[in-house]
Amino acid sequence: MRIGIVGAGFIGRAVAQIALAAGHEVMLSNSRGPQTMSSVLAGITGCQIGTAEQATQFADVVLLAIPYEHIPSLPPAWFEGKTVLDANNYYPDRDGHIAALDTFQTTTSRLLAEHLRGATVVKVFNAILAADLLTDTRPHGSSERRALPVAADDADAKALVVGLLDELGFDAVDAGSLDDSWRFERAKPAYCAPLDKAGLEIALAAAEREVELPLGSWRR
């Protein structure tokens, strides 16, 4: 599979590393252009680099791992017909306040899907620390395998991502539609918690829409 990554921060680089290790082709991009990427690629063997537009056109699947405040500036045409993995989280202090999110009227992924109307959005990779992506992978069937939540409206896209997670070393828990993805957004019990499938299912069920955990409580 060809995976184009928009965003070369911690999550983008970590996913690039485990995807390459699993045999996938990866193109990584950032907002400043390929000429700034030499230091970013240190230790990531076999990764291609390009502009954000080039990464989306290269990809079968696009991982979006940029601060949420930059979402409105993304040209929807770049993502037309693509499956987009949404690893974003909303931090008001960084992203500015968004009334619909502050009042729990929608989800970050629903807003993304409304912006990228020609794409198929899947919420995934937002509820794990970048360091854990590199250390918590386990073989299929391992009793210690970590699970990650996945939400999407499209069943085929969701199944594709569940399969990808398995190849990368994680189990998956179906968390419902994009409208249900609030259950593993920032400051919910499932957010960045190192859980197996059974534990993750419990954490997702325990989430309350208007209740947030203390900042940083999800760190080990």
From TrEMBL:
Record keywords, A-Z: Oxidoreductase
Gene Ontology MF terms in the entry: oxidoreductase activity
Domain Pyrroline-5-carboxylate reductase catalytic N-terminal: 2-89
UniProt keyword Oxidoreductase present: yes
Statement: the UniProt record of this protein carries the keyword Oxidoreductase: yes
InterPro entries in UniProt: NAD(P)-bd_dom_sf (IPR036291), P5C_Rdtase_cat_N (IPR028939), STEAP_metalloreductase (IPR051267)
Pfam family, one: F420_oxidored
Protein's name in the database: NADP oxidoreductase
Source organism per UniProt: Pseudomonas fluorescens
Taxonomic lineage: Bacteria, Pseudomonadati, Pseudomonadota, Gammaproteobacteria, Pseudomonadales
